User: What shape does this take?
Amino acid sequence: MFHPFQVEQFLSEHEELAHYNFAESGVHPMRVSELLELAGAKPDALNDVILDYPEVRGMQVLREHIALLYEDAEATNVLVTVGASEANRIVAETLLEPGDEVIAFEPTYQQLPGNAQNLGITVKPVAMREENNWALDLDMLEDALSPKTKLIAVVNPNNPTGHILDETETSAIIDAAERSGAWILADEVYAGTERDRNEATASFWGNYERVIAINSMSKAYGLPGLRLGWLVAPNSEIDALWRRHEYTTISASMLANTLATMALEPSTRARVVDRSRRLIRRGFETLQQSLATRPEIFSVVPPQASAMSFVRYNLPISSAQFCQRLLDEYQMLVIPGSCFGLEQHFRFSSALPSEYLAEGLARLHQLTDELVKT
Assistant: This one.
């Protein structure tokens, strides 16, 4: 049975109807001119780019820039993909076989678990507890582990909660993987979006030999339209992943490779990430102040990272109905918690321009006031 990707289905069916989109999961995207300025490049810097195929596994200099982000990684460990989505897909196809089991945390971004289910793989959920600031339920992790566990899927920092795994949680995941011989697939697309510190969330890469780390230009870099991601894997697995990449997309585009290379040049990358953190920190402060005006309705565990918040509401309406009314009556899009398996929540992106954010919050409160009156 096919399992649809609920978050992306919801977005693709509704986003064109919204004038105010608070459903995306990254910071406000950059224009090409802004990236060129941050890179110190001339406005015509792209004029001589030849629109040919790039190297199938990604341009050499781009892979070198990416390798610098991971301890003891080399360009040979890097495979550039069409977004993190392709990386998740080809990892599932490469590593998982009938009879395997995958452990996935909930709530989470469902791409890897969904791909696994669509390959006929059993997925065992492990809860992250809102009452414990979205910390991982380590007892559930222990119970889910079995000799059939082939892969533990991690999104760190987490989507949709923004939780960053602490040392105890990280150690427990690595220990579980070591005892079962499982792979850790670490989706780390929100590393660099931290709210309370400037140090990026540490990668799982380098802490255990069976790790594949995934990232992309979409979240911390504000460049989702490049549709460029990557995976970092042991050399023993790269060729098998590369072969599936050739079947799936052949390569990311030459323009995406070129612009990502500019963005990930170390000094430019620092400026790009600084831009994202400013948007994230200012936006969450605005959101928090706005929600605090209705404490009987809204609460949120402050995300440690990411451009969004997983907001709890206290109203007698399902999350799907709540979000549908926001769209129908106020042309505003947010993601219902039901897409992540949790009711009475919605995911709200706040790393956006101030006036746009203020208008969206005003519309959110208008609907809330109507629901309270009824």
Remarks:
- The chain has two domains: 6-31+269-369, 42-265.
- The chain has twelve helices and 14 strands.
- The CA atoms of residues 139 and 353 lie 41 Å apart.
